[in-house]
Please model this.
Amino acid sequence: MSVSERQTSPPLERARAFELAGDECVYDSRIEQAKVSYGWAIDAFLDARSFEEAMRICRKLIRLSPDVVRTRYTLLFLLIGLERYEEARSELLEYARVVRESGTRSFAIPRLQLLAHVTDDPETLQLLESLLSELGAEQLGYSTHLRETGSPSPSGADRRERWETLLPIALRDD
Model:
């Protein structure tokens, strides 16, 4: 697929082409290029709002290169938004481990804080607060608010809307 075709083709078509290119790179032992292609596939699936497919590629990329901090965060943000909290907590622990090993604490703290703003699951909030504390972040009392009020700040529908609004911001590269 040429550059101009990539820019004009529908997101799902682009995503599949990028995934195929990533697969070919893996078979040719061009791992760094495969990571780039898979990253583009994830972004295209996100553009198409095909969240399950985006998570599938995230997992594929994580198997290929377990130290991919951004991809692990993308997977986390998607799991939280889709209210798959048990999976999210497991991935959250792995994310924190990779952050500590890679020395990307300054990258991770604001992203974990953002996750707390779109999470209404008490167990996940407590884990987020614990990990933020371990990473040296200032505590913002997410789970305290939940315990005191008995419910998350916004309604579930508002939480989903907030998650969808923050999705492109949360997953940008900077």
Notes: The chain has ten helices and no strands. The mean pLDDT is 86. Residues 122 and 147 are 8 Å apart (CA to CA). Residues 85-102 form the longest helix (18 residues).
